[in-house]
Specification:
By secondary structure, the protein is mainly alpha-helical. Helices cover 72% and strands 0% of the residues. It has helices at residues 11-17, 38-71, 87-152, 154-161, 166-187, 199-223, 225-244, 246-258, 262-270, 280-304, 312-336, 338-387, 394-397. The N and C termini lie far apart (101 Å).
Length: 429
């Protein structure tokens, strides 16, 4: 298998691809990318379930800690003024949770940006490939229509004008047959015409999924960090299996979706010396036919125009059509070469298997840090709440009773009458 230009599986791909996999019965599963097989689907679900296990363990830890804190504390003696212990521990726990949250947010932004860049590169490569395929279909259609119009008009007129000279009519009819042969050969070059799979539609679907990932997945990260981590871990493992050897899966899937022959798909996806151009014979025959038409038209112009001046106009029109056809033919030769589409295939793989996979791994780390920060914050809340002073009852300030002396402002005589607070009404003695 020939790798696309510039694409090599990264170290992350190799590392994730080597992770062991097992189905629900804990039987080993091969690491080859096979999303249609039930065992492989179960293996990815089991990877996602590991994050669910982490969520369960963290919830159990938090519940045990809260129960111990609330139910196992020794009762405080009434009137005790001793501050609750653990203030420093609460402070450092909050600091650690805040730092982990900030670091996680930064990593999450970077990972989301990398994933988005990878998906954008994949969409751009698909759009460029769609442009190439559309250009091939357009050139073929335009050239075939021009040749058909030339056969129906100029060559028919030329045969009528040259009717007195049998040998010249035979040359014109030979040019007609060659033009019809070229049109027939060129029609087979539009290999993507009528294919149900459209790279443009795939690019739009990828962009649609990416848009909802940036919205729905971000909300999922905020609400359930562990659940998001499970999805990202399963996606990263499956993507590493795909990226370790993407050619067989892409070839088989494209052949199933398009119905194209394996020769055509192997030529464009692999693009190596072992696979020859499946359109080479058609291109060679078309080139020879165009050369024969050109020589026949030159012969007709040299022999017929001096005797039949009215033949000059259709001959000039045919030469113009032939020049346009030859220009389109050279563009088709360049577009039908595997280099262009194979370059788009490599760019799509690099976007998916390098940037997008790296972004998923950073999002995975972000989810882990977010879950740790959330668990630390939940464990710190009860102690932090115990450190807050009890709220004073505002009605006590309006009761007319005297306040204790330590709460009086400096310089205020304890025996002096209290000033009324705003909103308080003095009760009658």
């Amino acid at each position: 298998m020939g790798a696309p230009p510039g694409y090599r599986p990264s170290a992350w791909v190799h590392l994730l691809h080597q992770l062991p996999r097992a189905d629900f019965q804990l039987r080993p599963v091969p690491s080859g990318f096979a999303p249609q097989e039930q065992e492989y689907q179960q293996a990815l679900l089991l990877v996602a379930a590991l994050a669910g296990l982490g969520l369960g363990l963290s919830l159990i830890f938090i519940a045990v800690y809260l129960i111990r804190f609330c139910c196992c504390r020794p009762p405080e003696p009434p009137g005790s003024k001793t501050p609750s212990p653990g203030g420093g521990c609460v402070t450092w726990s909050c600091i650690v949770a805040l730092l982990a949250g900030c670091i996680g947010i930064g990593i999450g932004f970077y990972g989301n940006s990398e994933t988005s860049d990878g998906v954008s590169q994949l969409s751009s490569a698909l759009l460029h490939a769609n442009h190439t395929l559309s250009a091939i279909d357009h050139l073929v259609l335009e050239t075939v229509e021009r040749l058909g119009e030339a056969v129906r008009t100029e060559l028919t007129t030329l045969e009528e004008v040259l009717e007195p000279r049998t040998e010249l009519v035979a040359a014109a009819r030979g040019a007609r047959r060659q033009a019809e042969a070229v049109a027939q050969q060129l029609q087979g070059l539009a290999f993507w015409q009528g294919v149900p799979l459209s790279p443009l539609q795939v690019a739009e679907d990828v962009s649609f999924v990416e848009e909802y990932r940036m919205t729905v997945m971000s909300l999922l990260v905020l609400v359930l960090s562990w659940g998001s981590m499970g999805l990202e871990a399963a996606t990263a493992v499956g993507l590493s299996d795909f990226c370790s050897n993407p050619d067989p899966y892409v070839l088989n899937l494209t052949q199933e979706e398009t119905g194209l022959s394996s020769d055509i798909l192997s030529y464009y996806f692999l693009c190596n010396q072992a696979v020859s151009n499946p359109f080479q014979q058609r291109l060679t025959l078309s080139q020879r036919a165009l050369a024969n038409i050109h020589s026949q038209l030159l012969g007709l112009e040299r022999e017929a125009v001096p005797q039949f001046p009215s033949a000059q106009k259709p001959l000039l029109s045919l030469e113009e059509t032939l020049n346009v056809t030859e220009g389109n033919f050279h563009q088709l030769v360049a577009l039908l070469h595997c280099r262009g589409l194979h370059k788009d295939y490599g760019a799509a793989l690099r976007g998916l298997c390098e940037d997008a996979l790296e972004g998923l791994l950073f999002l995975l780390l972000f989810s882990l840090l977010s879950a740790g920060a959330l668990a630390t914050a939940l464990c710190s809340l009860p102690r932090a709440w115990a450190l807050f002073p009890p709220s004073r009852n505002p009605s006590a300030l309006c009761s007319g009773s005297r306040l204790s002396e330590p709460l009086l402002p400096a310089g205020l005589d304890p025996g002096s009458p209290l000033r009324s607070f705003p909103g308080c009404r003095r009760r009658p003695h």
